Amino acid sequence: MKDRVLSGMRPTGPLHLGHYHGALKNWVKLQDDKECFFFVADWHALTTHYEDPEVINANVWGLVIDWLATGVDPNKATLFIQSRVIEHGELFTLLAMGTPLGWLERVPTYKDQIARLKDKDLATYGFLGYPLLQAADILIYKA
């Protein structure tokens, strides 16, 4: 059985060389040896870019086209859009129902991100619950 890889990108804007060197180049290599699931993390993007959902929607297909152009092969890897797989939202909701707020508020990156992104209003449950959405993504695919 091949090892399983799950990785996603948030469609908050056009891709750049950092995306290629930081992730896509590795995705192209991984798809030959691993069972790969690569996804457009549009719900993750909403946690920090909730004021412009149209921008996120506009970038979804451009992201996929760029992946294909760099050599990500849908015959070797599963490509999908997070919001189109309803189980992501269902598992996120179930995890959220049983997770104490205090646990989420103590996630080390939570306060760091709020400080780093101080120009944005991140006082939303979407941002606070980001780790639960990540957990749901991983658990669904047993990655």
* Overall pLDDT level: 95
CATH superfamily: HUPs
Most strands sheet:
3 strands, parallel
Specify the helix fraction band. Answer: 55-70%
Supply the CATH architecture: 3-Layer(aba) Sandwich
What is the number of strand segments? 3
The first-to-last residue Cα distance is 13 Å
The level-1 CATH class: Alpha Beta
Defining key terms:
mainly alpha; Rossmann fold; 143 residues; three-stranded parallel sheet
Strand and helix layout:
Blueprint (H helix, E strand, L loop, with lengths): L3 E6 L7 H17 L1 E6 L1 H5 L6 H18 L6 E5 L4 H13 L2 H5 L2 H9 L8 H4 L1 H12 L2
Parallel strand pairs: 1-2, 2-3
Summary of the model, kept short:
It is built from 8 helices and 3 strands; from the N terminus they run βαβααβααααα. By secondary structure, it is mainly alpha-helical. The chain has a 3-stranded parallel beta sheet, with helices on both faces.
Describe this structure in words.
- The structure is a single chain.
- This protein has 143 residues and is mainly alpha-helical.
- The chain has a single domain (4-141), classed as 3-Layer(aba) Sandwich (Rossmann fold), CATH 3.40.50.
- It is built from eight helices and three strands.
- The chain has helices at residues 17-33, 42-46, 53-70, 86-98, 101-105, 108-116, 125-128, 130-141, and strands spanning 4-9, 35-40, 77-81.
- It has a three-stranded parallel β-sheet with strand order 1-2-3, sandwiched between helices.
- Strand 1 (4-9), helix 1 (17-33) and strand 2 (35-40) form a beta-alpha-beta unit.
- Helix 4 crosses helix 8.
- The longest helix has 18 residues, at 53-70.
- It is globular, with a radius of gyration of 16 Å.
- The two termini are 13 Å apart.
- The mean pLDDT is 95.
